[in-house]
Design a protein that fits this description.
The protein is an all-alpha fold. The protein is built from 26 helices and 4 strands.
Length: about 575
């Protein structure tokens, strides 16, 4: 070992003050990651307007293909970015790799703001959009592992959870920033102008954030752990094959997925996204009120990221991450039922007092899993169940012999379900409209609240919180966010500590992005399909509950506690030496 090598952070006292260089490292990594999440969320927030600009004039089959590709770029492509940039990060260095990821992300976002619509350049517009979205997904797949590894390798032993917790705030901060910019531009331009051209502004102004982020990151030094590895000549020549081709290393990536990130992801998506969907789509709370309620919960609960990161340095990563998964699994049902009771009391009463049945042959009913919006469910049973799910109704299924016409029975009133097979598009539209009209009338007559329901929560402004209804809802949503901070605050430190320096970037990135991109990203579509299948608005919660409980069991049995590990020492968590490729 070279005697000129500076003592790594792992040899320093854990209780000393944070140095100026360490604050700069955290700021540069966090700001860059906020910016990348801001870019990522712009697509989701403006998906409807982007679709109208790039996809709407094409035949349905073509639109569906592009919808699939756009979705894949957002979630399914992220693990591939983790492999590509994780390998580069372990070969070339952390600093340069996440400089590349932020430039790719920022450039692709800025170009979207300039990209002509399909009216101007035809099918080239959606093709270019999908390419840019794929580049963005790849870059995001490499960003998180780089930022988390870089900060952790600058942190002293005993403070990695605290230092890396600032990275964990970035996804929420990026969501906040994107919503604020969109709201500001929308207010300044007006709805008509925003739909025509104003939606481009949030993409274009991202170039300012890109410039600031690149400038800060370019002034940073390479991480001490990576420099030490390079000076000693112990780096990996083939990070991918060493990380995933050797069982002693690959098993920790699998265990990290199943015993940490899988549960973390579903708790994260349930607390921040499924709660938003549940309030708006199922409980019929208006959009501005839903956003204000979620914003207050995020504001009140986000300090938990740093708190639980700090606490994990004291008591361990496992008790907090697995404890958050367990608490979420045990309390989701009562918390979401309390949301229903407070957000829409009239709907809650209807659930308890008004029987609704779908009378049909069960063989004609599909499991309506539709993550990209491309599938069509046209049987009478599927149309009826989808309509009831959209109405927020709770219903059961009454089986009848094959060949019996399907119907919906609401408190004794029967509504014939539409038969769409073999009909022209115009006839399908007319029949569906007839069914929706009659179903709405039957539900309202029986006692389900109308659209003008006065009991549903409404907020007149951001500070209209000093009433029981919004106050209780914000409290419940804040509890859900606290669960998010428990599982997410310490996760970066836990993942970094599982893997040796030579393959750390590669090894930690893949389980993180499979967990969050696939298990978490598919949660809304999976839960909605479960609701439609069973007629129970709470049944979709079984997906995050089962996954979170599985993580608790696997994590308890197989994941070691690593908060005291010196990450400058090579070896796997079970003490086995690393075989070098």
């Amino acid at each position: 070992m070279s005697t000129a090598t500076a003592a790594p952070p792992g040899t320093r006292e854990a209780n000393r003050p944070m140095t100026r260089e360490e604050r700069k490292v955290i700021l540069g990594s966090s700001l860059g990651t906020v910016f990348e999440w801001y870019d990522f969320y712009l697509y989701g927030s403006l998906a409807g307007l982007i679709g109208a600009q790039f996809f709407s004039q094409y035949p349905e089959g073509t639109r569906n293909i592009f919808a699939l590709l756009t979705f894949a770029a957002g979630f399914l492509v992220r693990p591939f970015g983790a492999l590509v940039f994780g390998r580069i990060g372990d070969l070339v260095g952390r600093k340069y790799t996440f400089l590349v990821t932020i430039v790719i992300m920022g450039a692709s976002t800025f170009i979207v703001g300039l990209l002509p619509g399909s009216d101007s350049i035809g099918i080239l517009a959606p093709i270019l959009l999908v390419v840019l979205r794929c580049l963005q997904g790849l870059a995001l797949g490499g960003e998180y592992g780089g930022a988390a590894t870089y900060v952790a390798e600058h942190a002293p032993n005993g403070r990695r959870g605290f230092y890396t917790s600032f990275i964990q705030v970035t996804a929420t901060a990026g969501l906040f920033l994107s919503l604020l910019v969109i709201l500001g531009v929308r207010t300044a331009t007006g709805e008509e102008a925003f739909a025509a051209w104003g939606w481009r502004i949030p993409f274009l102004v991202s170039v300012i954030l890109l410039g600031i982020s690149v400038w800060i990151r370019s002034t940073l030094n390479e991480s001490p752990a990576f420099r030490k590895m390079k000076e000693e000549g112990t780096g990996s020549k083939a990070p991918l094959s060493e990380a995933f081709g050797q069982w002693r290393n690959a098993k920790w990536a699998i265990l990290a997925l199943l015993g940490l990130t899988m549960g973390q992801a579903v708790v994260w998506y349930t607390g921040q996204f499924y709660a938003l969907f549940f309030l708006g789509s199922i409980l019929k709370v208006d959009g501005p009120t839903t956003n204000l309620l979620i914003a207050w919960a995020l504001l009140l609960g986000s300090g938990g990221f740093v708190f639980f990161g700090w606490l994990s340095d004291k008591i361990g990563r496992k008790p907090i991450i697995l404890g958050g998964c367990l608490l979420a699994a045990l309390t989701y049902f009562p918390l979401f039922k309390l949301l229903t009771a407070e957000a829409n009391p009239a709907l809650n009463r209807a659930h308890q007092t008004i029987p609704v049945q779908v009378v049909t042959d069960p063989a004609t009913c599909s499991f309506q899993f539709n993550p990209v919006g491309t599938a069509q469910f046209t049987t009478a049973c599927d149309v009826a169940k989808a309509a009831l799910a959209r109405a927020g109704a709770i219903y059961s299924t009454e089986a009848v012999p094959a060949g019996t016409a399907a119907s919906v029975r609401v408190a004794g009133t029967s509504v014939a379900a539409p038969v769409l097979e073999g009909r022209s598009p115009a006839e399908r539209t007319a029949e569906t409209a007839r069914f929706n009209r009659e179903l709405t009338a039957a539900l309202t007559t029986a006692g389900y609240p109308a659209a003008s329901n006065p009991t549903v929560v409404r907020m007149s402004g951001p500070f209209d919180v000093f009433r029981e209804q919004p106050a209780v809802l914000i409290l419940v949503l804040t509890i859900l966010v606290i669960y998010v901070t428990m599982v997410y605050g310490p996760i970066a430190a836990a993942l970094v500590e599982l893997f040796p320096t030579r393959i750390r970037y590669t090894s930690m990135s893949l389980p993180y992005h499979i967990g969050n991109g696939w298990f978490g990203g598919l949660l809304p579509a999976t839960s909605l399909a479960m609701v439609a299948q069973t007629g129970d608005i709470y049944y979709g919660l079984w997906y995050p509950i089962v996954v979170a409980l599985a993580t608790v069991v696997i994590g308890m049995l197989f994941i070691p506690e690593t908060n005291k590990r010196d990450i400058f020492e090579e070896g796997t968590p079970d003490g086995a030496p690393v075989r070098r490729a």
